[in-house]
């Protein structure tokens, strides 16, 4: 749904789970620069093995600054597994005219300043495979082959 393409910078926020690892692999296959976050050494190792160009521990001090160093202009696509915790941060890390895809979140309210989306013209999209059209499902299957 983010329509990532070769040369774009992708952040997989929560890359060490099954969905995140698949996202890393798909984005790399598309020719993207991929940064992934993980919360354990084992998770970091899995994200590296999946092909991420950079791996950052989201538990480390200064991890946001490290992500900003990796992509000073921001990320073109951010795939978010825990929007309840990270959505405001994702908007800060997003580049102009980027896309933040919410793939996972607890059912909790999130305080977001709407201007954070306006100034950068960020698209925020919810993603749920259960509502895919037949065409989208076919596209997903093609991407996974």
How would you summarize this macromolecular structure in one to three sentences?
By secondary structure, this protein is α/β, with parallel strands linked by helices. Helix content is 39%, strand content 23%.
Walk me through what this model shows.
This protein is α/β, with parallel strands linked by helices and 145 residues long. The chain is built from 6 helices and 6 strands; from the N terminus they run βαβαβαβαβαβα. It has helices at residues 18-29, 41-49, 63-70, 83-93, 115-120, 134-144, and strands at 9-13, 33-38, 54-57, 75-80, 94-102, 123-126. A 6-stranded parallel beta sheet has the order 3-2-1-4-5-6, sandwiched between helices. The two termini are 18 Å apart. The model has no long low-confidence stretch (mean pLDDT 93).
Tell me the overall shape.
Answer: globular
Q: What structural class should be given to the helix and strand makeup?
A: alpha/beta
CATH homology-level superfamily = NAD(P)-binding Rossmann-like Domain
Strand content: 15-25%
How is the biggest beta sheet arranged?
Answer: 6 strands, parallel
Please trace the helix and strand order, writing H or E for each element: EHEHEHEHEHEH
**Physical arrangement of strands within the biggest beta sheet:** 3-2-1-4-5-6
Number of helices: 6
Rg to the nearest angstrom? 14 Å
Low-confidence stretches: none
Keywords: NADP
Pfam family, one: ADH_zinc_N
GO molecular function: mRNA 3'-UTR binding; NADPH binding; quinone reductase (NADPH) activity
Protein name: Alcohol dehydrogenase-like C-terminal domain-containing protein
């Amino acid at each position: 749904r983010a329509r990532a393409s070769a040369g774009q910078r992708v952040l997989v926020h929560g890359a060490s789970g099954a969905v995140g690892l698949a996202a890393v692999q798909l984005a790399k296959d598309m020719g993207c620069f991929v940064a992934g976050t993980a919360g354990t050494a084992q998770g970091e190792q899995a994200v590296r093995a999946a092909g991420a160009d950079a791996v950052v521990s989201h538990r480390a001090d200064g991890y946001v600054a490290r992500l900003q160093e990796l992509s000073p202009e921001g990320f073109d696509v951010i795939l978010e597994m825990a929007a309840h915790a990270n959505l405001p941060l994702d908007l800060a890390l997003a580049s102009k005219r980027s896309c933040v895809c919410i793939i996972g979140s607890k059912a909790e309210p999130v305080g977001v300043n709407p201007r954070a989306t306006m100034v950068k013209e960020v698209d925020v999209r919810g993603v749920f495979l259960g509502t895919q059209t037949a065409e989208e499902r076919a596209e997903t299957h093609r991407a996974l082959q």
